[in-house]
Amino acid sequence: MRAEARFPWKILVGVLVIATGLELVLPGRAARSETCTLPPHHTGMIFPVARVDPEWVCLLQSIIDNYTTVTTVGPVRAALSESMYHYLLDHPPVTTLLIDRLELGLYKSEERGPDRFWGSDGEGTQGIVQLVYRDRTSRLYYLEGSHNSRLLPDVTGKAVVLLRMNPVNEANGAEAMDSTVVSYTKLDNRVLSGLVSLLRPLIGGVVTGKFRKGAETVNRLGLVMRQHPERILFKVMDPPALSDRDVEFLKQSLGGADDFSRTGRLNGSTP
């Protein structure tokens, strides 16, 4: 599946799903969107699709109306505060760098323009993800990517990914985030698309599995941040260093930035 950066993400992360240096071309002109509409209801959730840039509407509709497979994952929980979750979700290179340095996964990500990222999960899926819309509780992405495995060699396609987030408090009072992902995937290969009835369970399983694995990885990252914040900051300072903006955000969010700068420890923690 030709999907772009997987958020996250892999969330994202989902997310993260992914393409190699493809140049995204904005769909048609804004006037064209007058004949196109996006459905607001997706698996029982309502998304603010009326706020999507009109230039994207027709392209997104063509995928949603003619999808090869649609999958829903969640809600899944990430052991992260709302502010940290949003920051990592919207800065995939920071997320994947931390995941790599903590040896939690093989994800890679690079910024390729405003709200546009290339990413790879290290397991045959790579692509470009473009953030189309965001607010406090929702994200909408357009992805182009490829997937290569023994079962599905050289599969390319496009996807529309809708993400719904909800801050929660766990039983111990810790902040966390619950997320649900809805993904519409459309294969490029017409022959494969013609075999949709046979391929749907296989492709759906691959997409679902990758989103779940990405979410689990983000949760593991959140647990390390919660239990060993000083370890995160030590990893952040390893060369090549993150940007000053990213380092400052992580210091402030993890607590004890001034104390860490002086002693290398957070809030009097022991080495």
Would you mind describing this structure in some detail?
With 271 residues, the protein is an alpha+beta fold. Helix content is 37%, strand content 28%. The protein contains nine helices and ten strands. The protein has helices spanning 7-10, 54-65, 82-90, 92-101, 190-194, 196-227, 229-237, 244-254, 257-263, and strands at 12-15, 41-42, 45-46, 69-78, 108-113, 116-120, 125-134, 138-147, 155-169, 175-187. The radius of gyration is 19 Å and the shape is globular. The protein starts with 6 loop residues before the first helix and ends in an 8-residue tail after the last helix.
What is the gist of this entry?
This protein is of the alpha+beta class and 271 residues long. Helix content is 37%, strand content 28%.
Blueprint (SSEs and pairs):
Layout: H1 7-10, E1 12-15, E2 41-42, E3 45-46, H2 54-65, E4 69-78, H3 82-90, H4 92-101, E5 108-113, E6 116-120, E7 125-134, E8 138-147, E9 155-169, E10 175-187, H5 190-194, H6 196-227, H7 229-237, H8 244-254, H9 257-263
Antiparallel strand pairs: 2-3, 4-10, 5-6, 6-7, 7-8, 8-9, 9-10
Helix pairs in contact: 6-7, 7-8
